[in-house]
Design goal:
- With about 150 residues, this protein is of the alpha/beta class.
- The protein has one domain: YqgF/RNase H-like domain (Nucleotidyltransferase, domain 5), CATH 3.30.420.140.
- Helices cover about 45% and strands about 25% of the residues.
- It has 6 helices and 5 strands.
- Strands 3-2-1-4-5 form a 5-stranded mixed β-sheet, with helices on both faces.
- The N and C termini lie far apart (about 45 Å).
Length: about 150
C-alpha cells in the first residue's frame, strides 16, 4: 500500500494551525510579516506597493491559512491617532470586507520604524543598506508581529 503525503499546509489547515500576519501600512509601501504555522516565530515576508496589497494578500491567503491580521495603528505621543491614520482606516475597513472570516486586530506601532532602523544598525547593515525603506517597512511589520505575539502570552 502506498501512502501519499498531503502538503504540509493542508496538515496545518486541518489541525487548526494557521499563521498570524502583520501589516505596516504606508501610503506608498506596505511591510508584511508572518508567523510560522505553529505561531512561534515572526518573519518578515515582503514589502509591496500599497495599491497591490489586497491582491497580494488574496494570493497569499489562498495558499497559506491565516487566522489573524494585525495592522499597525499609528499614534502620537498623546495617544491620539496620527495623520497617517486617515490612510489606514479605509484600508482596515476594506481588509475586513475582503476577508470577513479572518480576525483583524490593531496594535500601536509607535517607534517601530525607529526600532527597525536600530535593528538594522545592530545587525551590522551598511549605511547604504539601511537606506532601503522597503527593508525598514518589512522589519517594522515584523516588530509589530512580535509585539502582538508577546501581548498574547501575558
Amino acid at each position: 500500500m502506498v501512502y501519499s503525503l498531503l502538503p504540509l499546509n493542508y496538515f496545518y489547515y486541518f489541525c487548526g494551525m494557521a499563521r498570524i500576519m502583520a501589516i505596516d501600512y504606508g501610503s506608498k509601501r506596505v511591510g508584511i510579516a508572518v508567523t510560522d504555522p505553529l505561531q512561534i516565530i515572526a518573519n518578515g515576508l515582503t514589502t509591496v506597493h500599497s495599491k497591490d496589497v489586497i491582491d497580494f494578500l488574496k494570493k497569499y491567503i489562498d495558499k497559506e491559512p491565516v487566522e489573524c491580521i494585525v495592522v499597525g495603528e499609528p499614534k502620537r505621543m498623546s495617544n491620539e491617532p496620527s495623520d497617517a491614520a486617515r490612510f489606514i482606516e479605509p484600508f482596515v475597513i476594506h481588509l475586513k470586507r475582503t476577508f470577513p472570516k479572518i480576525k483583524v486586530e490593531r496594535l500601536d506601532e509607535r517607534f517601530t520604524s525607529k526600532m527597525a532602523f536600530q535593528t538594522m544598525i545592530d545587525g551590522g547593515l551598511k549605511k547604504k543598506d539601511r537606506q532601503n525603506k522597503e527593508l525598514v517597512d518589512e522589519i517594522s511589520a515584523t516588530i509589530i508581529l512580535q509585539s502582538y505575539m508577546q501581548s498574547k502570552q501575558r
